[in-house]
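Appendix B, record 7
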Amino acid sequence: MTRTTDPDVRLLAALGDPVRLAIVRQLAAYAEVCACDFTDCCDVRQPTVSHHLRVLREAGVVETERRGNSIFYRLAPAATARLATLTRELAVGGGVDAIQHRIERAGQIGQLVMGRRHR
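Structure tokens (predicted):
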């Protein structure tokens, strides 16, 4: 399998693993979680958790913050926003509405740039 640079594919692929999905669910329940606390939710050892956290970090799903010897993880707001957008686009009729919205928005931006929009 070839690696993709499409951020949507990387996001969905990162969430497609049961351990990573369990990690994301735990992060959704708490503002942040120490790396050492994921072994309880996932029933795997720390090296495996570290691997999955790396995959999630590389896909942009989580953000990290080091505090002393501990690393704390939280969901990346951009990833949750992108997932929400994907969900809307994939909903019945959502794809057409999303495309229409983009076309309308592009037209509005074009009018603003050209100075033709008046209030």
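Remarks on this record: DSSP finds six helices and three strands in the chain. The helical segments are 7-15, 18-29, 38-42, 46-58, 77-90, 94-114.
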